[in-house]
Amino acid sequence: MRRSPRRAVIGVAFAAAGCAAVFAPGAQAQSPWPSKPVRMVIGLTPGSGSDLLARALAQRLTPLWGQSVVVDNRPGASTNIATELVARAEPDGQTLLFGIDIGLTINPHLYAKLPYDIFRDFAPITLICDFGVVLVGHPSVPANNVTELIALAKSEPGKLAYASLGVGSQMHLLSELLANKAGIKLLHVPYKGTPQMMAATLSGEVQLAWAGMFSTRSLVSSGRLKAYAYSGTKRSPLMPNVPTFVELGMPEVEMGVWYGLLAPAGTPRAVVDRIHTDVAKLINDPVFRNKELIPKGYEPIGAGPDEFAAFLKRDFARKGEVVKISGAKVE
């Protein structure tokens, strides 16, 4: 079972000594960092939740670094395009990856060959946050809790349809984990994007979907959707009445999404430490935390480079098990 690093944010003074060696005048004749605008590459379209958080970080980091921080959206190939771009960038700290779990710890198990290796080609900087998703259903579904939903699925094998963003997406993997644990068969219906997926669920074209608490809370409270259970390790404050799969005796269905920052392998450690220190300041800042993280269902973490590297290894192994259960493969 996946274990996230403890939520205590790493102390922001952690990197001071290492940074001094590189940023001191004349240190190995290196230019001060950053020497030009910093590019933060993300593999999803503008307006997505991850994009909005990346832009909030960029806006706050710009005055701290004295250079513009520019969010560069490179969607496509399930975030592989953005991930490869950063893997091939100069290791000078000027190009960063706003990483999402699918590109780093899921896709390597889905694709027979990728143009990057997450352990060889990247320097982990910080694990920013993680969050779970909620299983929701159309109000016409004659089941009001997970027990009733499983019973319904068993009585009608393969008839209950769930929406996803495609093979290997979080929604696909979670649905297959649930089906495997409960001994049921569900119908997988992939969509091109979140708007199409949610429109299909709201119209009753499909019966089930997985989505973030922030985007579904009002739909559930207004009765347009039913909420069954949450995939996080503990209940979300956004929907405190929705149980977790863990407390329902189904810990196998616990799986969250995470966001982190990475740089190309070979980036100077002092630069990596400086970036982590400044991002940790923001995560600890009550204004940023209470505007950009907590209200949107994100659980702040702020783990440092070594802890993030260890987490990547654990999550890589965990997601490999999940993909194997799902049987998902992308040619």
Describe the structure.
- The chain is α/β, with parallel strands linked by helices.
- It has two domains: 16-131 and 256-326, Bordetella uptake gene, domain 1 (D-Maltodextrin-Binding Protein, domain 2, 3-Layer(aba) Sandwich); 134-253, Periplasmic binding protein-like II (D-Maltodextrin-Binding Protein, domain 2), CATH 3.40.190.10.
- Helix content is 40%, strand content 18%.
- The chain has eleven helices and eleven strands.
- It has helices spanning 16-23, 49-65, 80-87, 101-110, 146-155, 170-182, 194-203, 213-221, 269-284, 286-293, 305-326; strands spanning 38-42, 69-73, 95-100, 122-131, 134-137, 161-164, 187-190, 208-211, 226-230, 257-264, 299-303.
- It has a six-stranded mixed beta sheet with strand order 2-1-3-10-4-11, sandwiched between helices.
- Helix 2 (49-65) links the parallel strand 1 and strand 2.
- Helix 1 (16-23) packs across helix 9 (269-284) and helix 4 packs across helix 11 (305-326).
- The radius of gyration is 20 Å and the shape is globular.
- The protein starts with 15 loop residues before the first helix and ends in a 5-residue tail after the last helix.
